[in-house]
Amino acid sequence: MNLDLFSAENDFIKLDMPDADVVYYPELFSRNQSDVLFETLLKTIDWQQDNITVFGKTYPQPRLTALYSNNDQSYSYSNITMYPKPFTKELVLIKEKIEPISQITFTTCLLNLYRNGQDSNGWHSDNEKELGKHPVIGSVSLGEERWLHFKNKKDKNQKHKIKLQHGSLLLMKGKTQEYWLHQIPKTKKVIRPRINITFRVIK
Ligand SMILES: O=C(O)CCC(=O)C(=O)O
Ligand SMILES: [Fe+2]
């Protein structure tokens, strides 16, 4: 598969958020490329469901996850430590497609599988110490569209939301993680699964 065909990386939207740098590329991958990537990742990724501990309470994470990398650095959040597997062929293709746009070389990706509308990702920022001070996070979405919400850490009335489309890239850079939280809320609608791949640098 040649991911350079039909690319639309010149079409992007910069979100109007103070103390943040968030850029959305709605059609980074064509419909057909996105369909193939979704089906392949669904089958080939080693999806797992971890228990998380938040405020002393332990429960199964409301989605499946996986960690892949070109090194052996682990990633820890919410009392979970994940150890990576080597990148698959499709993950390398996606990484090579988003790196020139992101202007960074990623080492690692965390994958999320939201099986239905009850799966979610609670308010957080990607500010783990492994990621460094102003991390660049390249977030690719495949499958069902889901809303991503942002909330300012100091002024909780400052909010933004964006619907993440099949085949899109959302780049979060600069002070975004320092000043903003993000979440993927549940929805009562009956919906199909969604895969999200967040590329990161962990050295
Ligand atoms: O599913 C998404 O779009 C967001 C995932 C996310 O925030 C994360 O994995 O840190
Ligand atoms: Fe996140």
TrEMBL record:
Coiled coil: none
InterPro entries noted in UniProt: AlkB-like, AlkB-like_sf, ALKBH3, Oxoglu/Fe-dep_dioxygenase_dom
UniProt KW keywords: Dioxygenase, DNA damage, DNA repair, Iron, Magnesium, Metal-binding, Oxidoreductase
GO MF entries: catalytic activity, acting on DNA; demethylase activity; dioxygenase activity; hydrolase activity; metal ion binding; oxidoreductase activity, acting on paired donors, with incorporation or reduction of molecular oxygen
Cofactor(s) in the UniProt record: Fe(2+)
Signal sequence, start to end: none
Keyword DNA repair on entry: yes
Keyword Repeat attached: no
GO biological process terms on file: DNA alkylation repair
Residue ranges occupied by any Fe2OG dioxygenase domain in the UniProt entry: 105-203
Xref: Gene3D superfamilies: Alpha-ketoglutarate-dependent dioxygenase AlkB-like
Official protein name in the record: Alpha-ketoglutarate-dependent dioxygenase AlkB
Organism of this sequence: Aquimarina algiphila
Organism classification: Bacteria, Pseudomonadati, Bacteroidota, Flavobacteriia, Flavobacteriales
